[in-house]
Fold:
Amino acid sequence: MKKLYSILFALMLAVGVLAGCGETKTEEKENATQTEVAFPVTIKDAVDKEVVIDDKPEKIVSLIPSNTEIAFALGLGDEMVGVSDYDNYPKETADIEKIGGTEFNVEKIISLKPDLVLAHASSAHNSTEGLQQLRDAGIDVLVVNDATNFAGVYESIDMIGKATGETKEANELVDDMKEKMTDIKDKAAKIAEKDQKSVYIEVSGEPSIYTTGKNTFMQEMLDTINAKNVVTEEGWIQVDQEAIIKANPDVIITTYGSYATENPVEKVLDRKGWEDVTAVKEKAVADVDSDTVTRSGPRLVEGVEELAKAVYPNEFK
Structure:
């Protein structure tokens, strides 16, 4: 009888091991399906061109910093062989070949032999001829959408992820950004209506002062943190100082201290005629990094967090 039990136990153990192996192989197969992208892929880009990418790109050139930041966030740093003169993040971009600024160097790009060039809709209409030269040289050119809100950024990430075979990473990046945005909204929702601040955002200083209004990233950011924009016009507009003084914002945010003007906060506090503005009287003036609040890439969430800390320092410590 003992022998019979031993045989039965051995059989049950063998079945269990085989079942476990089967489950492991199934899981491995499912994981592989999630991470592998079948090429070729066809993408309709921002200028309505159907771009067919035959193989996973091994060499990529980016024509604009936002595309570069997305590519790095998707783990494509090693594939980047060319970036624009304006690229400054992450720090690794300093060691990557520069291909020009607003007017990119077609010959230089071709010499780098990229499989894929990530262009951008914001400048594509000014570089139609150059982009066509790249296509004629056998290089895949993908014009990424010009995002004006967070939904557009998620679309850009999805497009670049699909073009490079990094769809899983793109989905995870978007999910992570959305989760962080939800956390910020939840925290902002606890701010009582009577405590919500009015804000003026200054994107360039004197003599030509510009601000940001409706249908911009910064408007969406202010909406997210339950703050009111004192500017009601649309887009990026030149400032009427008297109108801002009359609006009397509780908080003033500048975004140009890192690249255009030293000590922008002090300059606003010392600005003639602004002495009675609440933000100036209470010294509620702060400078935030321009790239994180204007560049349509993964760091926009960081921009929202910095803006929230500047407007509501007690609530967003």
User: Anything to note?
Assistant: The first strand starts at residue 41 and ends at 44. The mean pLDDT is 90.
